[in-house]
Amino acid sequence: MSVHMKRKNYISWDEYFMGISMLSGMRSKDPSTQVGACIVSEDNKILSVGYNGFPIGCSDDEFPWDREGAEHETKYPYVTHSELNAILNYRGGSLSGAKLYVSLFPCNECAKAIIQSGIREIIYGDDKYNGTPSVIASKKMLDAAGVTYRLYDKTGRSITIQV
Asked: How many whole angstroms separate alpha carbon 38 and alpha carbon 15?
């Protein structure tokens, strides 16, 4: 009987789940910001994914994608963020103890949903809005609620798939 060595260059859990978050974000029709999220159980099973976009029934061709103008003429009052979409897409019951991989640090509104859903850890890919009122409030609530968060440690590995 021969003994075979296992493959050594497989991707880590963090690379896998952040990759799924990033791939999910590629579904977004938003021309300026594509964000993806992946919710994972404590035993590394994917529970749900989401990306930023308009609610079901709100046409991507009829609602605005603009970032400037009168508030109701911009995307901001209409777009559902990836984290909230992933939470709302989950159909399995409790998310208590789960981890959230997300390509952009959550805003204050998503932080509320993350806390209320029972997610206990956030792994984020970018914190480009650090220092803004929304992220300051988000971190204050997450800290108070005991939800941990850490920056994804980029490995620099290029993952290519052909579809």
From this structure: 12
- Catalytic residue check, 73: no
Residue of 15, 83, 109, 121 marked active site:
83
* DSSP labels, 107-158: -HHHHHHHHHHT--EEEES--TTTTSHHHHHHHHHHHHHT-EEEE-------
pLDDT digits (tens, 9 = 90+) for 31-88: 999 999 999 999 999 999 999 999 999 999 999 999 999 999 999 999 999 999 999 9
Write out the H or E segment, with its range, that includes residue 85. Answer: helix 82-89
Task: Answer whether 90's CB lies under 8 Å from 69's CB.
Answer: no
42 close to 97: Cβ distance less than 8 angstroms: yes
Q: What is the pTM of this model?
A: 0.93
3-state secondary structure of 84: helix
121 Cβ neighbours under 8 A, 6+ residues apart: 99, 100, 147, 148, 149, 150
